[in-house]
Amino acid sequence: MPKFFFDLDGTIINSQERLYKLFCELCPENRFSYTEYWEIKRTHCTQKDLLKRYFGYNETQIVNFNIKFKEMVEEEYRLAQDVPIYGVSDVLFYLHQKYRLFIVTNRQNRHLTIQQISRLGWFSLFEKILVTEQKISKEDLILNNITTSSNDWMVSDTGEDIKTAKKLGIKSIAVTWGILNKNVLEGYSPDLLIDDVNELKNIRFNEC
Asked: What is this structure's pTM?
């Protein structure tokens, strides 16, 4: 039975409001709207590049910004701003009946991650919730906990996860509604590229 490794933020959870509000808080010079900010970010513009290019931050300011961002981004009240990607709950319940599901995330706080997943009613759908706590790579975290096969899939909105899937010898599905736009994701050569979460219901993964 194929296994599915789901990234969390941007893939099944929409965390863009949380990330944008924190950016505005830490960069009071910002005048980009929510839409403008994400149009820039989705072109693969890093936080460092954005701060340097548009706001003239020097290296020290960027380092200080990133330290504060990391400290604050997973505060419990901020996580409450996250919402499920539209339609994803139905898709997860559907896939749970046919496949083995896992979450693999780069979140820092395992407890708050599990708490959030439980609040959304998803905890029972996943065999394991793997949290790197930013101490280990996703690749090593998976290898240390689960035996993978070429029939398995990684579902994510990031290029790094597509590269991780290739290293693990599993297949990748890139989703275009997250942190990177379609053009950027295509450059990583995922096995599948989807624009709507409901497409996951229609793919016969056992035959891919």
From this structure: 0.94
